[in-house]
User: Fold this.
Amino acid sequence: MEATSLTDVAKNAKARAMTNPLFPLARPMLFAIDAERAHALTIAGLAAWGRVGAPVRQDAAAFPRLATRVAGLDFANPVGLAAGVDKDGRAIRGLFALGFGAVEIGTLTPLPQPGNPRPRLFRLVEDRAVINRMGFNNGGLAAALARVRAMGDRSEVLGVNVGANKDSADRVADYAASVAAAAVIADYVTINISSPNTPGLRDLQHGAALAELLAACVAARGRTPLFLKVAPDLDSAAIDGVAQAAIEAGVDALVVGNTTVTREGLRSAAASESGGLSGAPLAALARARLGDFRKATGGAMPLIAVGGIASGAEAYARIRAGASLVQLYTGLVYEGPGLPARMLRELDGLLARDGLASVGDAVGA
Assistant:
């Protein structure tokens, strides 16, 4: 990417201030309390905002050039919310009002589970990153799906991310049952086998275990698109294996990727905490894995880029590198709830600058 000029820096700062007029004031207060409690307060606020109709909202379809079709689904724009933000589907309306083209809730397991002991969520402010070892804490798939049903009709794209219970005797059965239940309600279902915080879960990304899992989930999904979320820590042989297995099974898209267990170059005091790392330090690794999966799939399968995306420029770079969609999480922690709206403006401007009529024209360019 070209070096950013001082003029660009000033413009970006002004755009952030316009999009997030209150966040610079609220952030010190949120950052002064425990990260998990701050997260819970944020979700509660967004849920309340959604219940009153989200009177101030960003139109997800405000930029027609950003509309795109992926896996048979029509997205108002390619900027989605990653799983992990709203695990239990409590703030879906409020989150859509931020301008997201899709919201993915979860990860949800068949049975409720408390997750790992606290503390389990850590801000790395100096690195603009987060480490989590949540452990699929959630209230169970049935309760979340009931909330989605209670929403009634909606036009937005909603994904449901599913996983296996930590103490499950048959994880493949857990995934298949969850996919079958979620597919009735969700626009797409993502199977998460890449969290580093459930012991042995990432073993499902390899060989016969992966083939068995995908076969069961594809059989369970009916006609609902099925996405597979993979780790950014896979080596080249594993990447080729995952790509081949996903194509052969009929998976509709790959989400590349999840948090990383690597820790290179971190400065924050919490850098030694165990768990998955997300945010700005993940960007380079996530870009590399996206390119690897683009090559491994030969462009035969849509890719969804996740990891270190916090600007329209970075989203555009991932799209040009082969991503059909992008997802955010940690960027919201540091940039605030106005980030999706700002990214939509930036993306639309970049497409116009390059003379492209649609997001699809930029994928893999």
User: Anything to note?
Assistant: The two ends are 14 Å apart (CA to CA).
